[in-house]
Amino acid sequence: MSNNRTVLIALGLVAVVVVIVLAIYTMSGAEEAAAPTDTTNTDDQSTVDEPTDDQTAATTNDSEVIVFTDDGFSAAEYSAVPGDTVTVRNDSSQDLQFSSDNHPTHRDEPALNTPVIAAGDTTTFTAPSEPGEYGFHDHIRSQFTGVLVIE
Ligand SMILES: [Cu+2]
Asked: Which one is the CATH code of 64-150: 3.40.50.300, 1.10.10.10, 2.60.40.420, 3.90.230.10?
């Protein structure tokens, strides 16, 4: 009889421990259930990001695009305002090394010196802050020249 009571007490203790453990798991589960609310907030932030993308697109549309082909630059003169993002697009069949005058030192306006642009590629630079006329050329085919006018 005394052994049976000990077994019953032991089973009772095990049952209490199981109930406590279950209670803890249930509370943890409740915390996890709160997580989807955070996910919803993240979705809201994504929605906020979209107008930012639109603003970036608008900025790109406003900027001057200098197009280079195998016949040279698409215009003799381009214009931009100080600090504009100027795009250079290489539509020719060869590399373009867009460079500030004077050839070959390119020291007139270092802002115009871009890395080599592979055929089909595009790069950008920030327009000089001082108004004026800035000559440029393709350093590889230096007969091709143009002027960027900062207004
Ligand atoms: Cu040059």
From this structure: 2.60.40.420
Distance 66 CA to ligand 1 centre (A): 17
pLDDT at site 68: 98
The Cα 114–Cα 111 span in angstroms is 8
List the domain boundaries for the chain. 1-62, 64-150
| Ligand 1 center from residue 107 Cα (angstroms) | 10
* Phi, psi dihedral angles at 87 (to 5 degrees): -100, 135
pTM of the model: 0.59
pLDDT over 80 (residue 75): yes
